[in-house]
Specification:
Radius of gyration: 38 Å
Shape: rod-shaped
Helix content: over 70%
Number of helices: 8
């Protein structure tokens, strides 16, 4: 009869309402609880589902869980992409004239990252330093003004010239 059916439907719906209420604040750890509440709700008949007064709480929890999972997946993908670039940069090593390909490859990989992924690259300064070092190594040498890197002889020569001139001036005045 109808009264018994209504009582049975309420008795079936009430535990599902309690399961949905038990979800609480949604975190990544809420997956099992949300899935169990969904399974319990799906097991109800249409008349029993109509008695579940907090169904929207379940759908909101499912939406929130999906958003958290998507964010976690994106964060993991971003970290993996940044880690791959970090490894490419680290592989450059000591810069020589033969480092051009490795440096260009690391630069291209870095430039392909999103702005968010770039913030996760921990050794970007190493890349820019390697680029500068390679540029310095490949600078053409000016034959009219060779750079030996050692200016000591010219400085000593200038000091000796000044000292000699001073001695000559003292001797001339005496």
């Amino acid at each position: 009869d109808a009264a018994d059916k209504a009582t049975a439907d309420k008795a079936a719906a009430d535990p599902v309402i309690e399961q949905i209420n038990a979800i609480g604040t949604v975190t990544l750890d809420s997956k099992t609880t949300i899935e169990a509440a969904r399974a319990a709700y799906n097991a109800l008949t249409a008349d029993q589902k109509a008695l579940v007064t907090n169904y929207e709480t379940l759908t909101n929890a499912e939406t929130a869980l999906k958003a958290l999972q998507d964010a976690a997946n994106k964060a993991a993908a971003d970290k993996a992409a940044a880690d791959a670039v970090t490894e490419k940069i680290a592989a450059i090593g000591t810069v020589t004239k033969d480092s051009k390909t490795a440096i260009e490859s690391a630069r291209a990989a870095y430039d392909a990252l999103t702005a968010e992924q770039k913030t996760l690259v921990t050794n970007y300064e190493t890349l820019t330093a390697a680029e500068k070092a390679l540029t310095d190594l490949n600078k053409p040498v000016n034959p009219d003004n060779p750079q030996t890197g050692d200016n000591t002889p010219i400085v000593l020569f200038a000091i000796m010239m000044v000292a000699s001139a001073a001695c000559l001036a003292v001797l001339t005045l005496s």
